[in-house]
């Protein structure tokens, strides 16, 4: 090691002070030569004789210098610099070749860099919390595995007994109104005091609230950075300021960092009161925990499931709820999901194929260029260059091409990633933004090195294996047949990979078309939605507010109908209520949950949700009339099989007092997609608003004009009832439908783009091979024409040669697509991963494109002038 430390500075000096070191070497050798001459002159010989004798004794001076340079270990670096300098000159001499090869590499590098930028966030990126690998969400579950938010009672028992977790915190959703013009609703969370400790993120300004503040119910809050910026103008004096929210004063004690968002993007956090004497009962909590170091998610799941069974046996109300099990889920799994990760890996594999196709194309170009340099290579070998030295020089040219292409590709990728980073589909709470960061740059550097090896080494090795004597004596195409076979093999690989990509893209396109054909259960055209939930009203006052608001909105020009509903289809948020039939015992194993919708009487007509049996709610369904319910077709089929459900009783648990009440089924509605278009139908129950006045309602408005144009009028109508009432989440139902398709649309568009890029590269590859083959066989074609061959025969000859390569590649690609089809099973909808139509479309597309790529060289070959061709050599 000490020797290395001694030699390293000397080698650096030899590299960067070359002239000085060379002069010192010459001076030293001259000194030794003079010493030898003096010794021999002292023995009585003449100086001239002494000089020759000293030279013979010392040896060849230039050879000694080379040996000294080798000992310094800088020859390799100097040779590399020479190779790169020579490579630059050679690339500059052929700008067309350089541009095509570099751009081919740039497209491959740009594709794989873009996708890895996304994969780096989705799969490898760390959530912006402390200890993200140990952060988990904990749910209560029923025996069937259906999970939901636990109650306060369950959470307190978990917190006391769950040893798999260092700490467990809890959140409960709420909201506050902030006065302004217009007023704003702030989505809030009541949080246990240890929440910020569990996620290991502290306020950027001020502090978090304390356990004492939580126990005493103190009106203190922590603001999200966006609210501090947008609503309070980034006021540096915000700490200690009193803010009136929903008519009550609250004191700001902290502001979170701009990078912090957690699951539901809350605008502020207030203390959660727990235990006896609390003012607010928490029946639905989001439980967040940090597992102990060394504890796996499987171990935590096992412990919580056993613990929840014990809690259910101890507390009758927990047992009655049917929540006898539990489920632990990592934050990453909850926010991103396995299907998204799987799709990202599919896309990464796809762009890997694109890069391989690009490398094959460049290798073909280098082989073609190397064929024209056989005499140059032969001359170098004849002058004493080793094959390894020639290969190293050719690899230097490939490395320069890869560096140029990678630099351009990185610029293209940076521009693409900057755009993609703005898309909502690539943004998740707590996840870092998509960007070209250090990890992406390292990956791109690795891809560049791989590109050099794949596209450069095989051509360099093959080109360097020339027959020196024959190539120096003649310009004939010695070894052309061997090169032609290699180039044909590369084209076959390109076509095989392209078929796999086209088949995959075809599957996603067919899957996306199937999604578009799914009936969401309602008519989204002309439907406007907005969240008008109340935070300052009591139930009876809420009924009066909504009545007046609907009357004013219905009176607006262009409005065909306006009604209330608790949640909207496709938004993925539902309120679950327990239910059972009269025949089912009040038993935990039979306990069931359905999605609750509290709606006004015109809801089904306004949304275009058809009733398949019975009737809708009317103005006669009031708080004093017979309790009624409408269920959806899926629930009716599951509960009543082939029997008529109308007139039967359904016992539904009230979300207000948790009391179970019998309701008569008066109608059956069509199924609605509550979560996503590719999700199976769920159980839905609809209750009349007059019998259960909810305070968390959406207003849905049907219009025969442009719905968005009604927003200002609707805001004014609601402000006339209460000027401080916020209106949030305004969007047309068509926009929400499009948003639900954004993930599938993004994946389909991306894979289709890569498949088309692969197709273009494959066509360019076969065109290059066939054009080169035609040029190499010009004399043969001329001779055939001179002997009477018809141009059509030459056309068929070239087309047959090219299509043979394409058909071979297509056959291998079909086998590869079928072998890899299982990887697509989790990302397609309504189509088999081995769908013959997708495969047929991919093969047909690639063969049609190949025919076009072959046809141009074939037409040129058919137009060969025999006299010119025979003089070609």
Shape descriptor: elongated
Low-confidence stretches: 475-479
Largest sheet: number of strands, sense, barrel closure: 11 strands, mixed
Helix content: 40-55%
Structural class: alpha+beta
Using the CA coordinates, give the radius of gyration: 38 Å
Name the average pLDDT.
82
Quickly count the helices: 29
Distance between the termini: 61 Å
Counting DSSP E segments of at least 2 residues, the number of strands comes to: 22
| Percent of sequence in beta strands | 15-25%
Commentary on this structure:
Helix 19 (480-517) runs antiparallel to helix 25 (742-776). It contains 29 helices and 22 strands. Helices cover 54% and strands 15% of the residues. The chain is of the alpha+beta class and 873 residues long. The longest helix is centred in the middle third of the chain and has 38 residues, at 480-517. The strands form three sheets. Strands 1, 2, 3, 4, 5, 6, 7, 8, 9, 10 and 11 form an eleven-stranded mixed beta sheet that branches. The protein has a six-stranded mixed barrel with strand order 14-15-20-17-19-18.
